[in-house]
Amino acid sequence: MKLSTISGASTLFCILAQVKAFSIAPIQAPLPVPLPSPDPNQEFNFQCPDGKRFTKFELMQVVLGASEYMITNTSEDQYPLKYEYLEYDIHGELWYHIMKEGPEPHYFVIFNLDKQIAGLIRRTSVEDEDDILEPCGFM
């Protein structure tokens, strides 16, 4: 009887040791996959998760205005601001600018210094939490 108790205890120890070792191992997160960006030579529209749509023309108006403002603006706390959240498959530093001031949700166009549109995001603030950023899809 003592032998079966010792055997059972050692089996249990072996199982728990593996579980313990497994739970300590670091979890490796998958590398982020850059979001696709529209071809600047093609027409496109963006549609956000809430159904709101923006045309290439609307987005380019904001990008051109923001790019012009970047030449004369020396303040670091006004739009356009450097974008460092989601990755996009476009070269260069990314910037973002609000599409239109007003009540939430806010929509932001993301672009590079070559005035290429990388994407569009929808931002919603949640009380006492981080903002929720949702990428909008292009078509």
UniProtKB/TrEMBL annotation:
Alphabetically list the UniProt keywords: Signal
Q: Which domain of life is it from?
A: Eukaryota
Instruction: Please list which residues make up the signal peptide.
Output: 1-21
Q: What is this protein called?
A: BgTH12-04524
Give the taxonomic lineage as stored in the record: Eukaryota, Fungi, Dikarya, Ascomycota, Pezizomycotina
